[in-house]
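Lecture 7 notes: from sequence to structure.

We start with a single chain of 679 residues. Read the sequence below before looking at the structure.
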Amino acid sequence: MNKRWIGLFWVAIVLLTGCQPEEQVAPKEPEKAEAQVSPEGRLKEFISHWTAGDFAEIYAEYLTEGTKEAFGEDVYVDWQEQLKEDLDATSISIDYTKPEEEAKWTPEEPADFPIAVDIATVAGPVQFEKTLTLLFENGDWFVEWDPSFIFPQLEEGDKVKTEITKPERGEILDRNGKGIAINGTGYEIGIIPGDFEEDKKEELAKLLNTTPTAIDRQLNQSWVQPDFYVPIAKVAKGNKEKLDKIFAIPGTERREVPLREYPYGKALAHVSGFIGPITAEQLEELKEEGYTAEDLIGRQGLERSLEERLRGEEGVRIVIEKARSADETITAAEKEPKQGDIITLTIDADLQKTVYNAMDGKAGTSAAVNPDTGETLVLASSPGYNPNEFILGMSGSRYSKLQNDPLNPLFTRFAASYAPGSAIKPVIAAIALEAGTLDPDKGMDIKGKTWQKKGWTNYRVARLHDDAPNPVDLNTALVYSDNIYFARQALEMGRETLIEGLESFGFGEELPFEGLNVTTSQISNDGLITSEGQLADTSFGQGQMLTNILHLATMYEPFLNGGMMYKPVLFEEDQKAQVWKEELVSADNAETIRTSMRNAVTDGFAKSADLKDIPLAGKTGTAEIKARTTDKGKNHGYFVAYNEDAPDFILAMMIEDIGNDSSDKVAKMAAEVFKERDK
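Now the structure, written as tokens:
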């Protein structure tokens, strides 16, 4: 027998045998019942799930039956999850007004709670206040919900979408406000197929730096009709000669379009760089930052290194398209686009153009600095490329031509380092003078074109000019650029003193230059000097010594400003005259070296820089570059100079492979810069 029924049987026996009848009392009128469960507790649970995005849990356990019937799980769960993803709703905060302590809740009456909602979205915060109502059903409290708890204006059937507004890219200007990389306009060139002459296709392709095949690909798209405009390529407005030839071809049309422009073209190409379509690799790396496959991005130079600042921030608008009216839209949230920064450089674009033109397309590099502030006025790499070509769309054949050009115009030479040759001798002289191992007035008796220290076997020091008058003192050695004199002075001071001195001028230390990467100058591959032959070579800028052109210009500053090297500055916003190295040369020793550098122009082998009205001072240099000591190498020519009367900038110029010419060829180029500047 079932044990439960046995128990009931014995209870019945007891009741029947042991109880006497009593007088019955009429029941009282039933009182209004209080809810056994607090709606506030349910509200807290609901809010917790809401902020966590647990929409499925909310639908199953917290919504009233009426809400579920009205909207269904797909509307409540799927729609909210999709909206959260689309709107990039990163967080939600809900506060409610607590009820008074004596509040009592009854099942027959709704429980209302004022709430404040704050949703962080891609378009900024969405904030609103509403009243959340809970109803007592099936022994517990449940929430009445409708789409207005997502956005107050939202109703079932409405569509929510985000609209992206691209910011205007920031511009790069020179110190005088002249555009280096600016937002301009150009022309998009298109074809009206019905009016276009087929036999002109090859001519047009050549003018647009594209191919007939690429033009056919555009014209053969499924949507193309004979009277439709079909875009082909873009052309800069300034190229009037090309535009005239294009529009002489029947069936071509133009439309003005926004276009990034680089007004100084090749002269500043390696500084500005250029923007271009984002690569697959860049997109994979940056997609979390909002980049899309259609975006343009900095690809080289400052356009690349300053991408984050130049790009700006996208604007976003969350729009509700009302179901009841196709034309009605409501803006639920909006973040205005933030334009990219306007960045002003210390570069003097016109001076840089003058320097670039003076280099006459030869392979080389130049830098100019203000000796009193460290401002970088010129940073040139020659030959350059036209960054506007990359914006307009460069054909594969054109890019291949640039890549295969023996002068390598895509190579940023001011970022590299080279053997400085005799251009380093004023620095070596300063180190020896400060060490007290060099007496500028004491001469050496030097004969012949080569010299060998007693005990050396195969190594000999050679000099170019054996007509230097004896005895050879410091002034004569700088005027005649005498390698033997400097080798013997290096041996006198010793390798430790020379290394310490070069390190005090920044060798082996990263150049504190922000914005563009430049190579660190080196004493040698390992920073050491391991033999007397290497010590001698280093004294006249050969051996394993390598110097960056900007660093080289900076190393001449102590001769003009009281012994300091300033941190080279590229941005106008940065502090000027930041001391990098100090007490490098005394006032007397600096004057001694300045006098000799002026004499090197007037009496030495930089005669092309001996201008009538501009007293230039400086030092030439020739560095032989070869793979092995037995090879015949290429000669790189240098000239570092300044105007003695108005030393507002130091110009360092290097030209690769000057052949059998002397470095006076480079001095002539540099002198053209000073003449043009003086006009």
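The CA atoms of residues 14 and 607 lie 136 Å apart. Keep this in mind for problem set 3.
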